[in-house]
Automatic annotation (TrEMBL):
<dbReference type="GO" id="GO:0004089">
    <property type="term" value="F:carbonate dehydratase activity"/>
</dbReference>
<keyword id="KW-0456">Lyase</keyword>
<comment type="similarity">
    <text>Belongs to the beta-class carbonic anhydrase family.</text>
</comment>
<feature type="binding site">
    <location>
        <position position="103"/>
    </location>
    <ligand>
        <name>Zn(2+)</name>
    </ligand>
</feature>
<feature type="binding site">
    <location>
        <position position="46"/>
    </location>
    <ligand>
        <name>Zn(2+)</name>
    </ligand>
</feature>
<feature type="binding site">
    <location>
        <position position="44"/>
    </location>
    <ligand>
        <name>Zn(2+)</name>
    </ligand>
</feature>
<comment type="function">
    <text>Reversible hydration of carbon dioxide.</text>
</comment>
<keyword id="KW-0862">Zinc</keyword>
<dbReference type="InterPro" id="IPR036874">
    <property type="entry name" value="Carbonic_anhydrase_sf"/>
</dbReference>
<dbReference type="GO" id="GO:0008270">
    <property type="term" value="F:zinc ion binding"/>
</dbReference>
<dbReference type="InterPro" id="IPR015892">
    <property type="entry name" value="Carbonic_anhydrase_CS"/>
</dbReference>
<dbReference type="InterPro" id="IPR001765">
    <property type="entry name" value="Carbonic_anhydrase"/>
</dbReference>
<protein>
    <recommendedName>
        <fullName>Carbonic anhydrase</fullName>
        <ecNumber>4.2.1.1</ecNumber>
    </recommendedName>
</protein>
<keyword id="KW-0479">Metal-binding</keyword>
<dbReference type="Pfam" id="PF00484">
    <property type="entry name" value="Pro_CA"/>
</dbReference>
<feature type="binding site">
    <location>
        <position position="100"/>
    </location>
    <ligand>
        <name>Zn(2+)</name>
    </ligand>
</feature>
<dbReference type="GO" id="GO:0015976">
    <property type="term" value="P:carbon utilization"/>
</dbReference>
Length: 205
């Protein structure tokens, strides 16, 4: 895939605005009135997995936070603040952990080489590997093993969300928060729902 001249993005923006206004002259007026997103999505920073494009959403539909390998770290005040705002101020009732096959962060954690500063972040994923080492070792094909780790990592982050004060406070206040575990396959363009694959009840994922 060839690189794009940065200035082309500005030109693309102008074309996009013209197309939007041609269909709905009040579109931007509606955006300025505030946001009421349907869900909070935690995705990976990978440039190939743009949630809005893949899921076909409009502006204002998803409240999105992205980091390396879609990790929920209990020391990450950035994500925890985003989650608190989404749940307590925006009234979001659905939280999606959105991983993807072919994740570089997952591979780096599994290969366990010296990557510098990012190794501190990847330690979160290495914990997932340690918890599921025998299950992963039983998979002969490396790509299949890494795909399995992607799925296990998404499910682990769901479990981490359930341990946050934001989630616990929401439940204590009678607010039902549904957690969803999704994985994007950019070789097919499809998003897979892990709760269906693993027969997990919606209240868990």
């Amino acid at each position: 895939m060839c690189r794009t001249d940065i200035n082309e993005y500005l030109e693309n923006n102008r074309h996009w605005v013209a197309d939007v206004l041609a269909k709905d002259k009040t579109y931007f007026d509606q955006l300025t009135s505030g946001q009421q997103p349907s869900a909070l999505l935690l995705g990976c920073s990978d440039s190939r997995v743009s949630p809005s494009m893949v899921l076909g959403t409009n502006l204002g539909e998803l409240f999105i936070h992205r980091n390396i390998a879609n990790v929920v770290s209990h020391t990450d005040l950035n994500f925890l603040s985003v989650m608190q705002y989404a749940v307590e101020s925006l009234g979001v009732k659905d939280i999606i952990v959105y991983g993807h096959y072919g994740c570089g962060g997952i591979r780096a954690a599994y290969e366990n080489n010296n990557n510098g500063l990012i190794d501190n972040w990847l330690a979160n994923i290495k914990d997932v590997i340690r918890h599921h080492q025998s299950e992963l070792d039983a998979i002969a094909d490396t790509d299949e093993r890494l795909n399995k780790l992607v799925e296990l990592n998404v499910l682990e982050q769901i479990a981490n969300i359930k341990q946050t004060s934001v989630y616990k406070n929401a439940l204590a206040n009678g607010n039902k928060i549904l957690l969803h575990a999704w994985v994007f396959d950019f070789s097919t363009g499809l998003v897979h729902d892990l709760k269906k694959k693993y027969n997990i009840t919606p209240s868990i994922a």
